[in-house]
Amino acid sequence: MSLKSKPEWKNLQDLSIKFKETHLKTLFQNDPSRFGQFSLRHEDFFLDYSKNLVDKEVFAELLKLAESCDLKSAISDMFNAKRINHTEGRAVLHTALRHPNEGTLLFEGDNVYEQVHEVLDSMSKFSKKIRNGDLQGQSGKNITDVVNIGIGGSDLGPKMVYEGLLHYLNGPKVHFVSNVDGTHITETLKHLDPNTTLFLVASKTFTTQETMTNAASARQWLVQALNEDAVAYHFAAMSTNVEAVTQFGISKDRIFPFWDFVGGRYSLWSAIGLPLMLAFGPDRFHELLSGAHSMDNHFKLTEFSQNLPVIMALIGIWNNNFLDADSHALLPYDQYLHRFAAHFQQVDMESNGKSVDNQGNFIDYQTGPIIWGEPGTNGQHAFYQLIHQGTKFIPSDFIGFKSSLNDISDHHPKLMANFFAQTEALAFGLSTDKVVSQLKEQNLSSEEIDRLKHHKTFAGNKVSNTLLIDRLTPHSLGALIALYEHKVYVQGVIWNINPFDQWGVELGKKLAKTILEEMNTKDFSKHDSSTQGLLNEFIN
Ligand code: F6P
Fold first, then answer.
1. Mean pLDDT across the chain, nearest whole number?
2. From the CA of 153, how far away is ligand 1's center (Å)?
3. Which domain holds residue 269?
4. Ligand 1 neighbourhood includes 422 CB (under 6 angstroms)
């Protein structure tokens, strides 16, 4: 049965008519127990989703929708190595990357947990040796700087976590180079000493144009400064394509493999996390994994009505498919998480930016929203104006921590006062009546009041989730990332799409290859007039 013809979908559509005309203010006035009903605690996470346009009936219907889409089996299929990425014929096992080395998960005849821990152990040995100086650069100096060369999932995830855990840094500094724009690598290398720099080439496929180009330039920089033999001391790689890495000249003991069942955007838990292990040490990396694993267990074992990723996914579906929101803002109130939205732009939009269902048909309902965001309070002084008073309906997630890692003066109470104030202002606004009485108190003339009153009115009714977490630690960050990964999966299941392929990135790559070749022959005649015109303008 197609999604739109399910009775649960139809019921939600009917309910949405009323909720498009309902104000959050009314929902709160009518039900004093609302906060208790629409909030829950799981370990050190507290989720308040009461500031959404839902009531018991809507929530119950959303839960039924999840059941009717066989979410339970879909979850178990993922954990149990079914080839749910059916357009690429692959299993999806990022959850196995953070599973302890206990028990067995068989895939293609191997125990995945054992495979995973073998690589984790070799990453750990390598990291320890680099960190304590047992492994040094060619000239006998300790490694002080690591350059991670990768893009997409081989960059965004590790970079976000690196920035997220900077408080815990006690190893070499990591620099991330992703863009094929020569500026990125040039500006990074400018400040580095080849004698003390280790390059990590991070690429699942080891064919990605940007990464291969940057890796070649890094190699050239090193060889020019030192010599050809230095490559063996100053390079390592993380990839599923061990053959290609060997051809690049990186020795076997410096190749950290992973597998096809790890999607690029879900790979920070694999060997792709090596820069994190080098920076923070193996123990911290294992804490990150254990945080994610505890969220995996919560997701797998908890009934849907109490399940954080499921609830956040369902609220997202309600806003996206029934209340017509087309974007979703991620607003962490923690400077360390300033790359959080950037990482989840890939995780969410590359996963659920699809318009063909699992049966191969074009679909006639909305799928993944546009994901964006910046940390608070910076965003408040930039784009919040539009969320508060613009014409778009933008649901948001506010993510904050009870205690600060840098508890100086009164910074944290000020940060968190803003955090709570914003969701209140978004939900409840400020009525024109109140604006008028405030302006009267300021002794403004009635003409002035009439002129200003609507400009100063806040309609409110802007929905948000609030996630309040005890403290930003490797464990809680691991759990937070896993929470969002699972949210994206649940939504993909309900939309009946494959969240694990990314065919949409291929066409541009192919055309760029052709154009690059044509730049030599200067023959662009196969292109449309706009592209031809632009290319001629570029080369002349
Ligand atoms: O172009 C998109 C993509 O394939 C992502 O899915 C992936 O994370 C990124 O490129 C990098 O790929 P790789 O790790 O194979 O270099």
1. 97
2. 6
3. 102-281
4. no
Is the Cα dihedral 446, 450, 452, 453 positive or negative? positive
Does 333 share its domain with 385?
Answer: yes
Q: Where are the beta strands (DSSP E) in 258-342?
A: 327-332
Q: Among the options 18, 167, 509, 522, which is catalytic?
A: 509
Residue 32: inside a domain: yes
Q: Are residues 185 and 246 in the same domain?
A: yes
Is there a single domain that holds both residue 490 and residue 413?
yes
Please say if the pLDDT value at position 370 is more than 90: yes
Instruction: Compute, in degrees rounded to 10, the torsion defined by CA atoms 459, 461, 465, 470.
Output: 50
Q: How crowded is residue 335: how many other Cβ atoms within 10 Å of its Cβ?
A: 16
The pLDDT, as a whole number, for residue 39 is: 98
26-74 per-position pLDDT tens digit: 999 999 999 999 999 999 999 999 999 999 999 999 999 999 999 999 9
Rg (CA), the chain: 25
The reply to whether 348 and 260 lie within a common domain is no
Check if 120 has its Cβ closer than 6 Å to any atom of ligand 1.
Answer: no
Mean pLDDT, to the nearest integer, of 126-133? 98
For ligand 1, is residue 148 a contact (CB within 6 Å)? Answer: no
Residue 509 annotated among the catalytic residues of the structure: yes
Per the annotation, the verdict on 381 as an active-site residue is yes
Q: Is the pLDDT of residue 313 over 90?
A: yes
178 lines ligand 1 (CB under 6 A): no
